[in-house]
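Students often ask what a 'structure token' actually looks like in practice. Rather than answer in the abstract, let us consider Class I SAM-dependent methyltransferase, a protein of 441 residues. Its sequence is given first.
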Amino acid sequence: MTDLTSDVARAIQAPAAHASRPRRVPFFSRQLQRLLAQVTYGDITIVLPNGETLRRQASSPGPSAKLVIRRWRAIWRLINGGELGFAEAYIAGDWWTPNLAAFLEFGARNDTGMPHAISGSLVHRLIVRLRHLRNRNTRRGSRRNIAAHYDLGNAFYKLWLDRGMQYSAALFTDNDQTLEAAQNAKLARILQLLDISGGERVLEIGCGWGALMDRLTSHCDVTGITLSAEQLAFTRDRIAGAPNAQARLQDYRDIAETFDRIVSIEMIEAVGERYWPVYFEKLRSALEPGGTVLLQAITIDVARFDKYRQQPDFIQRYIFPGGVLPTVDIIRQQAAGAGLELTIHQPFGSSYAQTLAIWRERFLMAWPQIKQLGFDDRFKRMWHYYLCYCEAGFRSGAIDVGFFKFKPAVADAARCGQFMTAPAASVSAARAEKSSVRIAP
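Now compare that with the structural description of the same chain:
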């Protein structure tokens, strides 16, 4: 890869007026043709800046994509920076596609077949890795990382989320459901899984804008914690009339009370690999005997995890600094190490793809109003890429989302100690032993 990137660098340095010079064009074209030869799903058409068209029809069915390269440097960014570099080229306007979600799904389905071809240069990978390491989720780092995303402003999120301000997967039972109806169905399912009968003390870790807290106030005493000042202000206003509800600006590691139920909706993704054992230990220590823990968690396919944890992706670089997706097995093992037994796992990734598609449409429709808040076109392309990138991940099966229900386990102390002293990385790629986990329909 070093010789290749050096050749491209020399080519890029040529004057822009000679962008279609034959000496350079065949080189870029050959690199793309090498990539296309490894495509195994779907079909793609690529139009180069000089008008040359490349096509690839794979033997297996898959997404159909079209890519228009506006500037040659987009190919250089791909070769030098891999997938992340190509995402940055999109943000810079160096390439375009009529259907970004379809193109990214095409890439996700073919990613495992050409992992080394799009990894980027060693130097670039090291730089990205070092930047990511600076985003560790210490108490101070967590506050900074959460603020980077959620403190963009309540006005921003209000323009394209549902009326309940839920920034997590909805639960669609049919294609005709509105986003609001599907989000309400998700809340109803959460209450069902929590076995709420009335009077319980409930903790929500990462309470967002308070939609679940608002629903719970009619059944039980509820405490919500967040690290986002914007979300805290919104949630406190929302639950102001409920004497049995309180929202706090607090790190999960500082929880001192115990609760009958603990729920955390898409918060584990922000914990960070280093702190997974700490997170699950806190879930267990804050839980009353006989209580229930319920997580809604995004997970990554186990076959992709090792590369993912070594090479931070677009989301980790630009959207959720410090974030890491676990696998299903990691969740099961980390929970077991803390003395929690997984009793129900209900995946619903297709619902998240549908949720993201609606968010994307609403985001683009609301863009004139969003722009008035002070965001520029670069931000628009970055967020459009983010929403399509996630949608493609769920449609391709690269990532999933699910409910994970836990009960305190009767486990032998030595076994628990073994799990808790093992570093997260040592269990990250290992398959968990088969257990009596019920996969809910």
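One point worth highlighting: The longest strand covers residues 287-300. Ask yourself how you might have guessed this from the sequence alone, and why that guess would often be unreliable.
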